[in-house]
Design brief:
The strands form four sheets. A five-stranded antiparallel beta sheet has the order 2-1-5-4-3, sandwiched between helices. Strands 7-8-11-6-12 form a five-stranded parallel beta sheet. Strands 9-10 form a two-stranded antiparallel ribbon. The chain contains 20 helices and 14 strands. The chain has about 500 residues and is of the alpha/beta class. The protein is about 50% helix and about 15% strand. Helix 18 packs across helix 19. A hairpin with an 8-residue loop joins strand 9 and strand 10. It folds into four domains: about 160 residues, GAF domain (Beta-Lactamase); about 170 residues, Rossmann fold (3-Layer(aba) Sandwich), CATH 3.40.50.300; about 70 residues, Helicase, Ruva Protein, domain 3, CATH 1.10.8; about 55 residues, Arc Repressor Mutant, subunit A (Orthogonal Bundle), CATH 1.10.10.
């Protein structure tokens, strides 16, 4: 091949296009236009399909916008090139026996034709076709060599562009699924108390201030936090959640702000904290009331200045992260008893959303039951599941100390044990739902102080989601006293 200055300049232009253009259809047109201009071709097209042959792109370029007239001559040329995998060149189509009988050659005066395959891994994935009606011998084997060189680069670049296009489409699909999963539509309830929650959520979406979400365990605080994030302007950035109730102060600080290598025993490498990982997005701190005092101080500084330091580091970093905090405790009580900093509490309590207990929104139980029935029915491969009116009525009348989480578990279990598409009240197995406390709690007829104490302890444990530390604080008793009562209950056959 003779690399004339014209060819060299053209290949440079093609290379720039391949590097800078990511849209497949624009890429097709740019490559075709550059090549046609270089070869002085009059008309042409580029056609390409993906690996499965499902997604095809076809780009025409023509001075007189008569690309549709290419159909007959181009179809023959394309078939020859695709079937043979070899380029095609004709200097005078009218005299070429390969095109004998093609009326378009005569009608449109087509003379020069050049067509080369677009290949990837020796598989023909498309063609570049060009022709000219007025000039004979316009194309030569140098033309074919030039187009072959262009096509070898273009095939790979086009495939990458298609992959990127597919990836973007998949990301959009997944993003849409995420937004649907954590949108307001997934928070079930039509009661007046839930309508107030929706109204408050709508107002705080883009306020870009901390939100304190309160409510008993199992009421859906994290679901609300996710819905706020995925419906705010931060929705395309990360959402991360950290449970604050079971980590030591040292580990919690490292999880939040990261650490540098050598900061403590076992810190063998730098660690990026969740604050940095959530840059531009949202960080939810679940059970914020359990945050240790030393970390409360560091979180307060972050909320005030958007600044933090990794454990063991001496460089102050900044991060743009929205903080959503959740708790099932009485925060004012925590503050008054000096377990939680007042200044941090007021910093977090700029906006507050309180989620009602399920027992306070019983009208939503049928809706929630239907939602979970569909969800777990699909997971179990059981279609068109329904629940009898008696079973739903039993759900409505029952106490739900575990709130929505407990109701969800009850429905999931009923779906597993159901032998038909209709779930009856016998399938619900609600007698096993009271954490092993039912027998003792039902013994209201026992007037002794000892029995009353046991009943009270079990009720408080239920309210605290079996969190013994919280139960000790609420009842203002010693941990040892609680353990003594629990030991007596175990001796009576109660699982606690």
């Amino acid at each position: 091949m003779k690399l004339t200055p014209n060819y060299i300049n053209s290949l440079v232009s093609v290379s720039r296009t391949l590097l800078n253009c990511k849209n497949p259809e624009t890429l097709f047109k740019e490559i075709l236009d550059i090549s046609m201009k270089t070869l002085k071709a009059e008309r042409g097209f580029l056609v390409y399909s993906d690996e499965e042959g499902k997604k095809r792109f076809r780009t025409f370029s023509s001075e007189d916008d008569s690309a549709a007239n290419l159909s007959e001559i181009s179809q023959s040329a394309v078939e020859m090139v695709i079937n043979s995998g070899e380029p095609l060149l004709t200097k005078d189509a009218g005299a070429d026996p390969r095109f004998t009988g093609r009326t378009s050659v005569i009608l449109h005066g087509i003379r020069s034709v050049a067509c080369v395959p677009l290949k990837k891994e020796d598989k023909v994935r498309g063609v570049i076709y060009m022709d000219s009606r007025g000039v004979q011998d316009l194309f030569t084997w140098d033309t074919i060599n030039y187009l072959t060189l262009v096509s070898s680069y273009a095939a790979l670049a086009i495939d990458n562009a298609l992959d990127l296009d597919n990836l973007k489409a998949e990301n959009q699909r997944l993003s849409g699924e995420v937004h649907r999963s954590y949108g307001f539509s997934e928070i079930i309830g039509e009661s007046a108390s839930m309508k107030r929650v929706y109204d408050m959520m709508g107002k705080v979406l883009d306020a870009d201030l901390p939100v304190l979400i309160t409510g008993e365990s199992g009421t859906g605080k994290e679901l609300v936090a996710r819905a706020i994030h995925y419906n705010s302007y931060r929705k395309n950035k990360p959402f991360l959640a950290l449970f604050c109730g079971n980590l030591s102060p040292e580990l919690l600080e490292s999880e939040l702000f990261g650490h540098v290598k050598g900061a403590f025993t076992g810190a063998i490498a730098n660690k990026i904290g969740m604050v940095e990982q959530a840059e531009g997005g949202t960080l939810m701190l679940d059970e914020i009331a359990d945050l240790p005092p030393p970390i409360q101080t560091k979180l307060l500084r972050f909320l005030q200045e958007s600044e933090y330091r990794p454990v063991g580091g001496n460089i102050t970093k900044k991060a743009d992260v929205r903080i959503l905090a959740a708790t099932n405790k009485d925060m004012q009580l925590e503050v008054s008893e000096k377990r939680f900093r007042a200044d941090l509490y007021w910093r977090l309590k700029v906006l507050t959303i309180h989620l009602p207990a399920l027992n306070d929104r019983r009208g939503d139980i049928p809706l929630l039951t239907a939602f979970f029935l569909k969800k777990y029915g699909e997971k179990a491969g059981k279609q068109n599941l329904t629940m009898t009116k008696e079973a739903v009525k039993m759900f409505e009348q029952r106490q739900w100390p575990g709130n929505i989480r407990e109701l969800e578990n009850a429905v999931a279990r009923a779906v597993v044990f159901s032998q038909s598409n209709i779930i009856s009240k016998e399938t619900l197995m609600l007698e096993e739902e009271d954490f092993g406390f039912k027998k003792i709690l039902d013994e209201e007829g026992d007037p002794t102080l000892k029995a009353a104490i046991k009943r009270h302890v079990l009720k408080v444990l239920k309210q605290c989601d079996n969190n013994r530390s919280e139960a000790v604080r609420k009842m203002e008793i010693s941990r040892r006293y609680l353990y003594n009562i629990l030991e007596e209950l175990r001796a009576e056959g109660v699982e606690v």
